[in-house]
Amino acid sequence: MPRKMTINMGPQHPSTHGVLRVILELEGENVVGSDMEVGLLHRGIEKLAESMTYQQIVTLTDRLDYVTSMTNNITYVMAVEKLLGIEIPPRGEYIRTLIAEMQRVVNHMMFVGIYAMDLGAITPVFQTFRDREIILDLFEMISGARLTYSFFRVGGMREEIPQEFFDKTKDFNDKLLGMIAEYETLLTRNRIFRARNIGVGVVSKEYAINCGLTGPVLRASGVPYDLRKAKPYLMYDKMDFEIAVGDNGDCYDRYLVRIKELKESQKIIAQCLEQMPSGASNCEDYKKYKIPKPFKVPAGEVYFSTECPKGELGFYIISDGTKSPYRIKINSPSYINTAALSGMIEGALIADVVATIASLDIVLGELDK
Amino acid sequence: MEGDKKLSLFEKIFFIEIIKGHLLTLKYMFGKNVTVMYPDEKRAPVPKSRGIHTFKLESDGTERCNACGLCAKFCPSNCITIKGEKVDGKRIVTQYDIDITRCIFCGMCVDACPKDAIAMVEEYEISVYNKDEMNLDQQGMHKYSSRVPS
Amino acid sequence: MKKENLKNMNDIGAAEALKKHFPSAVESAELVNHEAVVYVRKDDIKKVLAYLKEKVGFEYLFSITGVDYPDRTPRFDIVYHLKTLEHPLQLTIKVKVEEGTDVDSVYDIFKSANWCEREAYDMVGVPFKGHPNMTRLFMWEGFEGYPLRKDFPLYTEDK
Amino acid sequence: MEVILGIAIILIKILTIFGVTMFIAGWTTWVERKIIGDMQFRVGVERTGPYGLMQPMADGLKLFFKESIVPDGCDRVTYELAPVLALVPAIMSIAIVPFAGSADSFKIFGQTPFIAANINIGILFLFAWSSLSPYGMIFAGWSSNNKYSLLGALRSAALVISYEIPFGFSIIGILMIVGSLNLIDIVNAQGSYHWFIYRQPVAALVFFISIVAETNRPPFDLSEAESELVAGYFTEYAGMRFSLFFLGEYIMLFVISSMFTVFFLGGWHGPFISYDVVNNTWVQAIPGIGILWFVIKSYFIVFVYMWLRASLPRIRYDQMMSFCWKVLLPLSILNIFTTALLNLDKL
User: Fold this and answer.
1) Residues C23, C26, C29, C35, CA torsion sign
2) Tell me, what's the pLDDT at C31?
3) For chain D, which terminus, N or C, has the lower number of CB atoms within 10 Å?
4) Is it the case that residue B95 has pLDDT exceeding 50?
5) Cα(A127)–Cα(A112) distance, rounded to whole angstroms?
6) What domain range includes position A241?
């Protein structure tokens, strides 16, 4: 009769991506049971939002998933716009599409680097951070910040984007495929990397749907569901791209899905830049929603979600006709993916647990809200 | 998926993919470093960068602020304290404090100001030894005024 | 309401078809700002969700949340969000719950309900009957009050 | 008089080699940080002294003055013993490193070879001491009353029985060809150009993989895998005790690299060498160049170690074990048989 050992992975552990606490029951190094404790980064964003005006909440969304602030901003402002019934001009939509895809590139670069780091390869993280810096500089050029942009506002955006931004994005985009090839040289075909990934943390199609997994994790399990195709928003119905779908639902497929999405994002960015129309980028009566004056939102409710790099980020907003939302519920991808972790690491080794957590690409700021 | 092909026997025996990886790191070794040697050498500041706050001044050196309090009202983290009084029929600001420890540098005070009296300059080295110095008062709001075009 | 018909439906069509199928269990089905909102009687929630999953193909439950209306009886709404993966259809299903009573857990139908229900319990204090581990998710054990209730203070005096 | 002179020579040798090795071990960390930094387009250490050269000194000083924390509930005796057990085998192994043999025309006190202990069972001595170092890890892991340390220790114990066998088997081919366990004989048998790396390529590969595992270096650093086990067996160690582990690791790194040089890269031999027809031996044309060649070759191996660390992910421990048993062991046995068949005339 082997004796079990309980080991406490996190909240302070190099590879739990923040303050996730995983309690593992071990037999030797094999996981026989696991439990999770979250909430160590809970800041009560949903409660705070109830006391803030609709414009101010943009700053809170920056701090959800701090790797992809831009897409959080876009999702939130689009949810409010849907509630208000505002349409923004095509240039504004193209800019949002472009920036959402750039943010996806940033996120997936981060994923590749951090994932490799958790598997013990230390160079990819520097490769990806080197290249990510270029996009961060571009974002800083338009918004003035490098991480918490607060760039998009209800009805438009904070400032007009200079032409220099598009030119530099094009330069970057032309080099992007070469950068991805560099990351792949060190990882994709490497036999140690493959041995660590293939068949690890397998999620079946049924389990993935039943647990409500989203994003690359869902697609790696063979479910071709991507909100950009399923419920096209912004300009995605005009873009020519493919959904990356995996076969086995293991860590390796999750990695490959993200690499494929990087390449698809490259295509979308190129198309956005090519088709970028001129004209206004903010909605017609943008002055009404500009900052010094809080605006009222008609009573009602809306659920709006977009395909963020990590999966489906949704804002469920109930409005009672005042300047602040009555209730906001944030449906975040990291949260829903982490909830299914216990089922994925059953019977795995500790090294596999690390790989599986990393392959979910979680950010605790988003999980704990 | 595309990368899922099995390693061929040739690749397996001669470590082709591992050798490729090693050649890449060797290439990096003789390539250029990307490190910015921070205290000696700084990134070129981005003009729009949201750093420390400062007052925009009129050409005669007076503050534009008329203490309307919209910046304090719109600050998401409630870190601005502002007081004003009427002197010679003109409202002037008498107390202006920004608690930098609470500030999230979102730039909403700048957007909110109807008088265009407050700006953010690209100064990011704002750490101090004493926590009390993290309070930006009216005096401190003049420190970088020369950096913004009036 | 059948799986094959979903193709030609929109959200509100699906909601109305659901009302037709469960005339007694579904209290109302209406469109609120583009969202099809279905109010279901509290005792029938499990039956309705199981039907939606097994027979109709709303197999993807991604959010459960509680909303507090302090001036209303019953006081709370529990909101379920469901969608299909083949078609762009989405349903918002709501249950009215009075303070002090509980709702049936749907954990045995949807595994995703595990944390979602715990969070709803943690935030508004509506317990779910039949959930294997009905404890707080974000707040620590022994935390008093439920943060997302409207009567929970936003600021407290510093001591 | 002869006796006293002999003892004095030995003492001088010991002190020189000990000092030099400690020096080397410290600055190997600098070399590693610089090389890996360059491979990741970073700069590496550069704040202390020119090019950061004083960094090892600063690190040492800091660790020396840092509080040595003793965790609650640890087994005190084993806990204190473990770092020593990790360091001593590494230092002892230096004794048999032949920096330069008697063939080098750079000679002190006549014919003395540049080796602390020229014993005729050098290989066995190396194996004996290098096999002891896992005990340091196991003691450390068990005594510090930490589950991560324990797992790290168990991993290193599981690993040591896996790699030690191919490690030993891989050089039996060389022993059969040379017919001696003395390291100087092995080097001399290779001469300038007949290096064993191309006479015994399979053995060289197996030996190299084994020594990477032996020194707990990436990609085989399972017992201290920082992304899984925090820091493995020395999680609870701090200050001077930690630095002993650290020193032990880097000395072992150098010793093992020099062993690869001895077995496969022709030791101190290199260009600028001539054949002494009178004594029928190879001698170095330039005095002292043998030591230089030896250090260059050894440091090339150290460089390869760092290169591996910069390029590869970490292997999982069960995969490492199955690799050792199912691939390395058959390969090394096959190598023994092949060598035996090819060298039938020598037996």
Assistant:
1) negative
2) 81
3) N
4) yes
5) 10
6) 4-366
Residue D219, preceding bond cis, omega within 30 degrees?
yes
Q: Which residues of B touch D41 (CB under 8 A)?
A: 28, 31-35
Percentage of residues of chain B with pLDDT beyond 90: 0
- Domains located in chain C, CATH noted: 4-129 (3.30.460.80)
Domains of chain B, CATH where assigned: 53-147 (3.30.70.3270)
DSSP for A287-332? HHHSTTS-----SEEEEEEEEETTEEEEEEEEE-SSSS-SEEEEE-
Question: CB neighbours of C91 closer than 8 A, spacing ≥ 6?
Answer: C11, C14, C15, C18, C36, C38, C52, C58, C81, C82, C83
Is residue D144 within 8 A of residue D216, CB to CB? The reply is no
**A103-120: per-residue pLDDT in tens?**
999 999 989 998 998 888
Q: pLDDT tens digits, residue range A306-352?
A: 988 888 888 999 888 888 888 898 888 888 888 888 888 888 888 88
Tell me the mean pLDDT in the region B37-41. 85
Q: State how far the Cα of B76 lies from the Cα of B102, in Å rounded to an integer.
A: 10
The CATH number given to whatever domain includes residue A40 is 1.10.645.10
Cross-chain residue pair D41–B32, CB shorter than 8 Å? yes
Are residues A337 and A217 in contact, defined by beta-carbon separation less than 8 angstroms? yes
Pairing status of strand A327-331 against strand C26-32: unpaired
User: Which residues does chain A have within 8 Å of residue B49's beta carbon, measured at their own beta carbons?
Assistant: 140, 144-145
Residue of D72, D70, D308, D101 whose CA lies nearest to D185: D101
The set of residues, in sequence order, having a beta carbon less than 8 Å from that of B8 and lying 6+ positions away, is none
Mutate to test the interface with A, among D222, D314, D318, D321 (most CBs of A within 10 A): D314
Helix (H) or strand (E) holding C126: none
**pLDDT surpassing 80 at residue D70:** yes
Predicted pLDDT of residue C159: 47
- C-alpha–C-alpha distance, residues D48 and D64, integer Å: 17
List the single range of A61-70, A328-337, C24-33 with lowest mean pLDDT.
C24-33
Q: What is the average pLDDT score of chain D?
A: 82
| Helix or strand (DSSP H, E) at C131 | none
The per-residue pLDDT for D283 is: 62
Please state whether D215 falls in left (phi above 0), alpha (psi between -120 and 50) or beta.
Answer: alpha
Query: Residue C100 class from Cβ within 10 Å (0-12 exposed, 13-18 middle, 19+ buried)?
Result: exposed
Beta strands C128-129; B80-87: pairing state: unpaired
Question: At residue C105, what is the residue type?
Answer: S
pLDDT of residue D110: 53
Nearest by Cα to B92 from B117, B61, B66, B64: B66
When divided into structural domains, chain A yields a total of 1
D43 Cβ under 8 Å from any chain B Cβ: yes
The pTM assigned to this predicted structure is 0.89
Q: Provide the pLDDT for residue A146.
A: 86
Contact yes or no for D145/D73 (Cβ under 8 A): yes
Report which secondary-structure segment, H or E, holds B83.
strand B80-87
Cβ of residue A300 closer than 8 Å to a chain C Cβ: yes
Decide if D35 touches B, using CB distance below 8 A. yes
Under 8 Å between Cβ of D159 and D74: no
What's the token pair of residue C94? 């709501």
Q: Is the ipTM of this complex over 0.90?
A: no
Residue with tokens 């707990």: D216
Residues of B within 8 A of D46 (CB-CB) are 37
Give the three-class secondary structure for B90: strand
Name all chains with 3 or more CB-CB pairs below 8 Å to chain B: A, D
Closest residue, chain C, to A35 (C-alpha): C133
Tokens representing B83? 């007081």
Helix (H) or strand (E) holding C93: strand C90-97
